[in-house]
Amino acid sequence: MVTLSTTPEKFLEDDLKDLEIRSQGCLYQYLEKKKLLDGSTIFYPRVIGLRSQDNPTHWRWGYNWEERADGAWKGRSIGSIPPGAVPMIRTLQQQGAIREDIIAFIKRAKTKKTSPKLDVCKNFDNTKLKPVLPDDAPQAVVLFAGGGGIEAGMVEAGIRPVIAVEFDPTKPELSRAIAQTHHRNFSEYGCRIIQLTVQEVAQLKFIGFPRRPDYLHASPVCANFSQAHTAKAGIALETVDDLTAALAVTEAIRQLQPRVFTLENVPRYQSSQSFAIILQTLAQEGYLVDYSVVNMDKFGLPQARRRLVLIAVKGVRVLLPTTSKPIGWYEAIAHLIPTMPDSQLLPKQQQAVEQFLATGVPTPLLIERVGGRNGLKYKPAHLPYNTILRSSFTDHKGCNRNKFADIWLPDGIVKSLSIQGAAVLQGFPDWYEFPSETATAGSVIGYSVPPSFASQLFMSIQSILQGASV
């Protein structure tokens, strides 16, 4: 068990003379001890498995700084920082934010309703408590909403989604079921789900939409640009529907004039004519643009997921947030594994296990049940999982797969990865309510922008915009 000092080491150095360093402040982690009636000592937060230095939920957090008063340095601190706020605080520090802005952000994070007991074994990061947004929270419009992964991230970042457009005419029943899931999760925030295509809404001139919203987000349908839908590597099969969708997005930008426009898609979308059309419109409307292909496992998502992410802001250039150390899939869902149903490996899965054991030390493996072009895929415990797709949960006819991935443990136990486990690997908060049907729930997960990444993205944007308006 690691024991940490509650005082950052840098504040104990007598020869630290630089005024800026002394006053800037330091984020630090520590453990809280508690002696039980039986005489034993336990540490909080409680953690299943090894405690990770880079997992914010494995520690208590505080922020220390020093102020000059009456000719002497006086130590100041804020404790009980929510672990979910730690990545953003680190980002603020790396971006050179002043101490006052960091302290103001911490105080805002601490005003959110918290559970009475912070314990990693039971709701370790308070995610079952749905965020409460103030009446004056920034407003957002979302196009191609799906089940609301981007909206979940927005809500976690203190942004209120007010209108979401979601309808896929090629899968009308599934689209209606996803829209119902969206309504169940976001209607309490006043979010209205519009079951029309984005093209249809554009033809109606976006009637009823707020003008000049704080945020406008679009995740255009990406199937035609994915690896599975290309005739040759690197060549996307762009269609008329893709182009009309892009034109509808540009109409939304022109008519709504959001302060911030964001876009997410598969990496190959950046080589499309659709993306070029959107970039041209953003330039014409005076937006400063930054975009790149992001490896979301570098933002704490326990999944290897590469996506194109764009941020466009009027008058301010906003860069993507800084990355953090990847998290292995096992660390993310270890607490859920005992609750998952028992399973048996398929012959090909058993072969994969034997091949791994021939070259490596026994460790938990997460193994897909259906192989892709290169056969079955498995991931050892310390690595992020493979990209989660809608097709993982359904067969070629669109029917449910009873099992889509299995967890092999070194003691021989095999568990079937649950929807709840897949949702955690996709970065969904515990408060999000999934439908009971596997195909619908899997579609929501596979289609969605990971909410944990989205929350970091929008918290970073919010912080930079607040700094620019001072």
Automatic annotation (TrEMBL):
Q: Which GO terms describe its molecular function?
A: DNA (cytosine-5-)-methyltransferase activity; DNA binding
Domain of life, per lineage: Bacteria
Task: List membrane-spanning regions.
Answer: none
Q: What class of enzyme is it?
A: transferase
Which SUPFAM superfamilies does the UniProt entry name for this protein? Answer: S-adenosyl-L-methionine-dependent methyltransferases
Q: Which residues carry out catalysis?
A: C222
Q: Which UniProt keywords apply?
A: Methyltransferase, Restriction system, S-adenosyl-L-methionine, Transferase
Q: Which Pfam families match?
A: DNA_methylase
Q: Does the keyword Transmembrane apply?
A: no
The catalytic activity of this protein is classed by the Enzyme Commission as 2.1.1.37
Per the record's keyword annotation, is Methyltransferase included, yes or no? yes
Q: Which family does it belong to?
A: Belongs to the class I-like SAM-binding methyltransferase superfamily. C5-methyltransferase family.
Q: Per its record, how is this protein called by name?
A: DNA (cytosine-5-)-methyltransferase
**What is the native source organism of this protein?**
Komarekiella delphini-convector SJRDD-AB1
Lineage of origin: Bacteria, Bacillati, Cyanobacteriota, Cyanophyceae, Nostocales
